[in-house]
Amino acid sequence: MSSTTAIFRRELANYFATPVAYVFIVIFLALNGVFTFYVGGWYEREQADLQTFFDYHPLLYLFLIPALSMRLWAEERKSGSIELLMTLPISTWQAVAGKYLAAWAFTGIALALTFPVWLTVNYLGSPDNPVILIGYIGSYLMAGAYLAIGACVSAFTRNQVIAFVIAVVICFVFMFSGTPMVLDLFQGWLPQPLVNTISGMSITTHYNSILKGVIDLRDLVFFFSFIGCWLLANLIAVEMKKSS
Amino acid sequence: MKPAITVDSLSKKFGAFTAVDNINFDVNRGEVLGFLGPNGAGKSTTMKMITGFLAPSGGQIRVDGMDVMKQPMQTKQLIGYLPEGAPAYGDMTVTAFLGFIADIRGYRGSDRKERIQTAIEKANLGSVIHKPVDTLSKGFKRRVGLAQAILHDPPILVMDEPTDGLDPNQKHEVRELISEMAQQDKAILISTHILEEVNAICDRAVIISHGRLVFDGTPAKLEAMSRLHNAVTITFAGGLPDAAEQRLRALSDVADVVCEQALNRLRVMPGEGMSIAGQVTRLVRDESWEIDELYVASGQLDEVFRRITTLGGPADAGDLS
């Protein structure tokens, strides 16, 4: 077992050793139900798909994912256990990857537990199941992108509240970066190509494109390079604290 | 044989503040080195650099000849580290926590089980193995930290205030453990600000103050720097004899006599590097003074410590004795 696996296992087990896992999963499932069936009006639409279920995931993740990621590094710094972790014979990459993958796996568990929604739609009608599967994949990638932001932000502070708030703000920016709300901030003083780049970095746009039922390579490249960049920033943040 | 740890012109700056200022020392195998200094002198910072948690701003640290910054994986494998306050993952039970450390250290199967078992036994944790670390008392938490540090039986141990905040029994246990490990040819660096500890377990002491090295030598040498080193204290039965002070002063090697009238006590200070016990006892016998006690002080460490660490730096160290 490599060090990454050891850290992964410790982190994942830690969610279930504390009430964090149960609180998170219960709230996540309850909110999913509320958004899908009440706010989204799933019954009224009378369509055998999970469009309303997936539509609210960007909003749901906006608050729930930073709540999950805020403790990743901030808690270690606060309790001093980071000193223990970083003086063990592991590389910073292994620590960054182990922690991130554990958090992502945990979100996967929470997402998988929404399966009753899928059962319901199959019971009531005959939905296009491959499209639903692709929707789940898209949702999982989006959660991964939010998590990478949150993990990176958490590495900069020892205060979990700050980590949460900043992560929500940054996630918000990337969620709406295709809309005028965010673009107007940059329009006029940034060169147009850069503004276009920001517009193209919208998590929601790429997510919605996947939700159409086709996994486009460009969307995959976007999500994986997005996650990669934020984890690299995470690594740099941890390294920076070392030589500060 | 090369030293286990070599600290070479080491410096650390935090912004404009210099925490560690160009210090040099070695730790050899089979040696317990006491790292002393007032709070905030730079002890913990130095230890964090040796263990690779912080990067030095200048200078170099070699562990078993390898540069800590260039070969961190190798040097970290050789070191067992107990950080200040013995941080651990509080939500984990003691066994789970030690299991995690064993996983990271790369132990598998029965070897892993054995290592954890040995560490639990050595640190005397048997009664709490299934409790979460957070619920343990301070003494037990410290022992969990120790167990974690010795799990891989490292040739080098770095411990930041291992006995801080423990009760006398626990302190004794921890010191026993350290002395035991010193006999196994390990290099041990412990920081402390408790001076009794130096005499109790250290072969050598290094004192830093304001980030600078101000003393490097044996505890005996440190004691010898005390003004009270070899001083003879006499408590008289009844009152002080009339001529006692003058007679003692007249002895050739005596530098000074301090009178504590209320206690019927005289403290006889020797000249530099002199031993006066013989002269003084002879005089007491010749004069047939009635005395309650007579003893030779080996020196007071805290007095030396205070003097060394309140002065500016190494330049002043020579004027101390």
What is shown here, in short?
The complex is a heterodimer of chains A (244) and B (321). Chain A has 244 residues and is an all-alpha fold. Chain A has helices spanning 3-17, 20-39, 42-45, 51-55, 57-69, 71-79, 81-86, 92-112, 115-124, 129-154, 160-175, 180-186, 192-200, 203-211, 217-243.
Structural description of this entry:
The complex is a heterodimer of chains A (244) and B (321). Chain A has 244 residues and is mostly helical. Helices cover 81% and strands 0% of the residues of chain A. In chain A, helix 2 runs antiparallel to helix 5 (57-69). In chain B, helix 4 packs across helix 5 (138-150). Chain B starts with a strand and ends with a helix. The model of chain B is unreliable at 313-321 (pLDDT under 50). In chain B, the strands form three sheets. A six-stranded mixed sheet of chain B has the order 6-7-8-3-9-10, with helices on both faces. In chain B, strands 2-1-4-5 form a four-stranded antiparallel sheet, with helices on one face. Chains A and B meet through helix 1 and helix 7 of A and helix 2 and helix 3 of B.
